[in-house]
Amino acid sequence: LGRHKDDQRQTGFDYNGVHFGQSNLHVFAGLCAVDNPTNVETMMKALHAHGQRCTRMGAYKPRTNPYSFQGHGQSCLHYVFELAGKYDIKVIAMEITHESHIEEINFALEETGNPTGVMLQVGTRNTQNFELLKAIGRQSRFPVLLKRGFGITLNESLNAAEYLATEGNSNVIFCLRGMKTSGGNPHRNMVDFAHVPVVKRLTRMPVCIDPSHSVGNRESDPSGLLDVVNATAQGVIAGANMVLVDFHPHPEEALVDGPQALLLEELPKFLEDVQLCHETY
Ligand code: PEP
């Protein structure tokens, strides 16, 4: 996936009629964690109404605390895929934490006859889970959104992408999601969107930003530090090709990361602002 000097090869890839490249822009808005069919449908309906073709929906959640909600896993896949089919939305960024999840997703897709498509996500905690990367690389049905590891060098994270490619899957999007710092202040993670142009120069991968997990709070604090929306603008102006962003119809009831989820009524303005930033770039 590395870009060599004078490399003229196409960046990115096509998947089920949609191009994911280094010059266009997609928003992957959706639920960090699937909670119930009503919220999934509300989200997909709103995205469809605003011309969106992709969403994020987390079924398998890798949680730091074993007592936290771990995601509905396989049990929610059927209704997620049925609703995705109904609203013609691709489920981008379905994070998996174990290779057996690939089979579960395949099975649910077959059962529901969903024609829209799924993209797998490797989360930041698994960027160096080499056996998982190899297993995901061996299947070529689903493209992959790979998160940067939060405590390793950029080069080490780019090598993780090569693990996918050397096993046969080079349909990979690289996602910046912030780096760990001591204390997590002022943001949940240190926003690393200045690396957008760096990754685009070094590789042929489209680059996604995840302002939600980088900043960790939809509100700006009183000193006016970056909030999710401002961080998004920063990343898109830097040339990001995708924005992975948490929304929720009722963030106060979200089972995972409610404080960073944008409100559904903010969606139209958010999409408009992101488009303006993309045009500025
Ligand atoms: C997520 O996208 O839901 C997630 C857990 O992200 P990360 O791996 O970046 O923490």
From TrEMBL:
Organism whose genome encodes this protein: Oleiphilus messinensis
Alphabetical keyword list: Transferase
Gene Ontology MF term list: transferase activity
Protein name listed in UniProt: 3-deoxy-D-arabino-heptulosonate 7-phosphate (DAHP) synthase
Domain called DAHP synthetase I/KDSA: residue spans: 17-274
